[in-house]
Predict the structure.
Amino acid sequence: MKGLSNHAALAAALLGCVGFAPPALAGQGRKAGTGSCRTGIATYRVVTASPAGTSTIDGNCTFDQATVEGTCTNLYSDPTGRRFTSVSVTRHASRADVVDEVSVNPPLNLALGTATTVSGAGLNTTSTSALSYDARRRLTGITAVQQPGAQTSTTAYTAWDAAGRPTAATLTAGRQASSQVLSYNDAARTQSMTTGGVTCTQTFDENGNPAVGRCGGSTATTTVLTTQQICR
């Protein structure tokens, strides 16, 4: 995220699933398997420990049943006094898609897209992402645009596991392209992503909510404070 210190950027990336999958409704989940509802995070705290120190993100998520939109607001702070706020709005085609994301754990991603604004500490950026799927509801691509500057990046997924989760991708930003490999351990509830020789791993709780993320020497631990129900 342009304009952030490395520490702040790592904390933002480790929030929820963002470091390992397309931006999604942070923390919305239920126990893996078929069902009519899912239990998601309403309020939470993410503490990120890294060689640069410890930062905190205090967040809350709400879900609009009518528009099928989830809004998560996060306040970042660290001991240096750095503070900024991010607001992400994620759209789904239906409430059934929201619930179906946790038919497996680690979860799928069935969102249509996300719009995020970041403000504070001299920051004023917006980013949007649009997701595409094939006829089997497998994620095939993401197009992301960040403003100012209209910086555009794309992710093309080329392989999937039996549950429909992506396992291989090519990331393109400008003229640079890199490969990405993803893997899942359902028993341990972990999702790992390797890009450029660096592996990041996210562990989920029994409801498919982010629990512990590890990436680049940093560890982000999510504490769920209150929950909410989302039903078909």
Q: What stands out?
A: Confidence is low (pLDDT under 50) at residues 1-32. The radius of gyration is 16 Å. Residues 6-231 form one domain.
